[in-house]
Amino acid sequence: MITVIGIFEDINLAEEASSYLLGNEFASENIDIHTNGQQTNEHGDRVGDFFSHLIDDEKQAAHFASLGRKGSIVTVHAISQREAQEAVDVLNNYGAIDVNASDDSSSRSQMIERIVDDSKRLRGNYTATK
């Protein structure tokens, strides 16, 4: 599986992106949305745990977590490279923010070829059922 992450400043844009994906052949069980009000769980920082689990580079994981805590995160667990690229395009088109901390390249939605453990997924209080 390929995990695609988009971070949004506006929850409405995150929800619109998620709804668009659902209306275009993406399965609801493969889309998670996490809003900035849902930052802790019984073990601490959900957002920090998620990015630490997904990204090996501690500095990059901390940077993503910092941005994610301020906004809304849409995560798509894609089953193919084609589906992952479609998800990236949709999230970018709906306004995912620039997350690049280290160079001048344009880096908004991120594709990471790693399966996210179910216990680390950012399933929020928003249920994508539209």
Automatic annotation (TrEMBL):
Protein name: General stress protein 17M-like domain-containing protein
Protein's organism: Mucilaginibacter aquariorum
